[in-house]
Design a protein that fits this description.
This protein is α/β, with parallel strands linked by helices. It has 16 helices and 11 strands.
């Protein structure tokens, strides 16, 4: 069933329509990790009345854009064109999700491309470190796996497997949003605010340091460190306090991570926080990369920062600045119509009615440093650590890790 919504945003000379299909790589069955990524790519490679080439030519003849992307918990397909051409292009979305051709010759191309993407990911120690981190954090949960799948599974997926997966795909909930009022949908502005659901999760406090640690050996002069844990769903009231924490740690040159690792010691190549929107328990991790020479020192700095977060609430000045930066980031994310529509339809699919900027700001204003400290103790008392680097250095870090965590 397709539910339609429109956002009556100020007049633009172009229209965008985006469909969110509930269920992405989290729908991949055992032994077929990566099948929904293949299906997602195939959907836009031909439909009733168009093969791959004629579809591309038709879209490009109107100067339009067609995009698709798979997430852990959804598939997104969008089309964008000038207003005068939208009525000719909008019907394509229905054909793509209901009457795709799913030809075997296109399947073979997409399958080969998926395998190449997976191989390319394996060449990057940063990706390997992250894959190891979420594997130990999520174990057999769908979030433990890359949306591209793994090479062993993908190599065994057949065209018949994808056709069967499409039958499953057709029964999934679908949500469409557009800024074009001609879609005959429900106005976003009429959707009232909906209380966020409290979602409790099992905290891994009983796991040993060894169970919360992994590393892979690489021959470069770079050590990559990732530390964190799974947290809450986007539906949870804990989401915004954790966003404030993310802002404090990583937003801009006033961020705690930047000041500690870059400004004070100048030792990192890359650092930040990864905290994406998810319908389930989202990952929250600090990542950084340093030279092998600075790796042990960097880990000690990170450990000290972590302990300070666990035992000392943020000051009034720190939390005020973090809130202002967070509100600024929401405004920045509202400059692109594509981003606005994508975010709102994703939230609707999670069962959350989009709230206005005023409501959002009032919720942020209510958050206290004690709220954040409580969540830090809840989620990060026993974090998970993944390292990519020289084996000797990784094992030295593990010795310190055992003592500290």
């Amino acid at each position: 069933m397709l539910k339609k919504y429109f956002l009556n945003i100020k007049k633009r000379n172009f229209s965008t329509a985006s469909i969110w299909i509930k269920g992405g790589s989290d729908m991949d069955s055992t032994g077929k990790k990566g099948i929904n990524k293949i299906l997602c790519s195939l959907l836009t490679r031909g439909c009733e009345g168009f093969n791959n080439f004629t579809l591309s030519e038709y879209i490009e003849s109107y100067g339009a854009e067609l995009n698709q992307e798979i997430f852990e918990d959804g598939i997104s397909i969008s089309i964008k064109s000038l207003n005068e051409h939208f009525s000719k292009l909008y019907p394509l979305l229905d054909l793509l999700i209901n009457k795709p051709t799913l030809l075997e010759i296109e399947f073979q191309k997409v399958k080969k491309s998926s395998i190449n993407f997976i191989k390319k990911d394996k060449e990057n120690p940063f990706n390997i470190c992250f894959e190891n981190w979420r594997r130990i954090v999520y174990s057999n949960h769908p979030y433990a796996f890359n949306t591209n799948g793994n090479a062993n599974d993908v190599s065994k997926i057949t065209h018949e497997d994808v056709l069967l997966e499409f039958k499953n795909f057709k029964s999934r909930d679908r949500y469409l949003i557009s800024n074009n009022l001609g879609i005959n949908g429900v106005s976003i502005e009429t959707l009232g605010g909906k209380p966020l659901e409290e979602k409790s999760i099992t905290i891994n406090n009983d796991l040993s340091p060894n169970s919360r640690f992994d590393f892979n050996n690489n021959d470069s002069n770079q050590t990559i460190i990732m530390m964190g844990d799974q947290t809450c769903s986007r539906r949870s009231s804990e989401y915004l306090p954790l966003k404030v924490l993310e802002s404090y740690l990583s937003y801009g040159m006033s961020a705690a991570l930047f000041k500690l690792f870059r400004e004070k010691h100048g030792i990192t190549y890359d650092l930040g926080v990864y905290y994406p929107i998810r319908s389930g328990n989202a990952p929250f991790l600090i990542y950084l990369s340093v030279s092998n020479k600075q790796a042990l020192f960097a880990f000690e700095l990170l450990s000290t920062l972590w302990r300070n977060l666990l035992f000392n609430p943020l000051t009034e000045a720190e939390i005020l600045l973090a809130k202002e930066k967070l509100k600024g980031s929401f405004l920045l994310g509202s400059q692109s119509l594509d981003e606005i529509l994508q975010r709102k339809i994703q939230l609707i699919s999670y069962g959350i009615s989009p709230i206005s900027e005023i409501d959002l700001n009032s919720k942020i204003k209510e958050i206290t440093s004690l709220d954040i400290l409580k969540l830090i103790k809840k989620y990060f008392s026993k974090p998970f650590l993944s390292i990519s680097g020289n084996e000797k250095i990784c094992l030295e870090i593990f010795d310190r890790w055992e003592k500290n965590f």
